[in-house]
Design goal:
Structural class: mainly beta
Number of helices: 2
CATH architecture of the largest domain: 2-Layer Sandwich
Helix content: 10-25%
CATH superfamily of the largest domain: NusG, N-terminal domain
Mean pLDDT: 85
Low-confidence stretches: none
Radius of gyration: 22 Å
Order of helices and strands: EHEEEEEEEEHEEEEEE
Number of strands: 15
CATH topology of the largest domain: Alpha-Beta Plaits
Strand content: 35-45%
Number of domains: 2
Distance between the termini: 49 Å
């Protein structure tokens, strides 16, 4: 079983640390990336585990040390023991990355326009359609035609999808 060590990086310097490790000969490094919808209303690519990356040192023979010029703080430690991740966990992360096209997508919620028609797929209002009104952090508000009049209802973001 291969063991992967967790390398702690300086904030926002994970890519620089990967480049430095690759230049030193550590061929088995992993920096899983994700995309999330940011407040700027654009997709932003960032590390899935901010400030951390994974490295397998078996073929290289030694563990990477502190190199703050290249963004490496050192190996993650818990007291006297090192932060180690099993090969199975790394395989699961790689499978998820492959499944998602190389970059894991977080905050999958879509942003709807006011008045856009929505279908509710889950919860007590499943099967109903309504008009999008507004969105909060984890909930959307929609106008549903219930009991003969339009009512504003708050619905979890995951339970809503756009209707063409």
């Amino acid at each position: 079983m291969k063991l992967w060590y967790v390398v702690e990086c300086i904030a926002r310097q994970e890519r620089k640390a990967v480049a430095a490790l690759l230049a030193e000969g550590y061929q088995h490094t992993l920096l899983p990336m994700c995309k999330s919808w940011e407040y700027k209303r654009s997709w932003e690519e960032q590390p899935w585990f901010p400030r951390y990356l994974f490295v397998n040192c078996e073929q290289y023979g030694r563990k990477p040390g502190r190199d703050t010029r290249n963004g490496i703080v050192g190996l993650l430690r818990f007291g006297d023991s090192l932060g180690i991740v099993s090969d199975e966990v790394i395989a699961a992360i790689r499978a998820r990355l492959k499944e998602e096209g190389g970059c894991i997508v977080l905050n999958r919620r879509a942003y709807y326009r006011n008045g856009q028609k929505l279908a509710i797929s889950d919860g007590p209002f499943a099967g109903h359609e309504g008009l999008f009104v507004r969105s909060a952090q984890h909930r959307s508000a929609a106008l549903l035609d219930l009991i003969g009049k339009s009512m504003r209802v708050r619905i979890p973001v995951e339970a809503v999808r756009a209707v063409s």
